[in-house]
Amino acid sequence: MKNTAAHEVDLDGLRTYIDGKMQRYKLLFSVNGGAFAIVTLAVKNTPAGIDLDSVSVGGLTMEAIALGAISFTVLMTLDIWFFGQMMKEQVLHRFGFTPEGKAILLMIAALIIAAWTFASQMRKALMVLPVIAGVVWLIVHSISSKRSRENSKRTAEVC
């Protein structure tokens, strides 16, 4: 890895960042899409008007599948976030994982989680609290790591 000036971009690092990010997003969408397809097939094979609580796939209820998909979505969101943050700090600096990218990631995760919540007709409103706590933690962590980087730059400039 070479030392780049502020206006230059490490193209190999950028390529690595884009490939890693796209593989992670592809995994997020593939797993959620696969789970949704399985649930869709199970629901289509049930009589009309049946309660979704009675639908099961391989012994898993609709709510259990939704909770699994939501948990996976949260874990993948954290993975994408930490990967993007690490690449930004070590390779890309101002060229990667911008505030807009962070917002898009959080909105995609929120949309997937909301879709699973509505699809499974979850009645547990408290499940939203861990998701909100996770999003708040990500934002606070991002702000605090940015401040810590700025403080370390100021300290290095003084020395």
Summarize, please.
The chain is mostly helical and 159 residues long. The protein has one domain. It has helices spanning 11-44, 62-92, 99-119, 128-158; strands at 56-57, 60-61.
Keywords:
159 residues, mainly alpha, 4 helices, 2 strands, 3% strand, elongated
Give an account of the 3D structure.
This protein is an all-alpha fold and 159 residues long. The protein has one domain (11-158). 74% of the residues lie in helices and 3% in strands. The chain has helices at 11-44, 62-92, 99-119, 128-158; strands spanning 56-57, 60-61. A two-stranded antiparallel sheet has the order 1-2. Helix 1 packs antiparallel against helix 2 and helix 2 runs antiparallel to helix 3. The longest helix has 34 residues, at 11-44. It is elongated and about 75 Å long. The mean pLDDT is 79.
Topology:
Elements lengths: L10 H34 L11 E2 L2 E2 H31 L6 H21 L8 H31 L1
Antiparallel strand pairs: 1-2
Helix pairs in contact: 1-2, 2-3, 2-4
Shape: elongated
Mean pLDDT: 79
Radius of gyration: 20 Å
Biggest sheet, open or closed, and with what strands and sense? 2 strands, antiparallel
- Percent strand equals under 5%
Q: How many domains is the backbone divided into?
A: 1
Q: What is the number of helical segments per DSSP (H or I, 4+ residues)?
A: 4
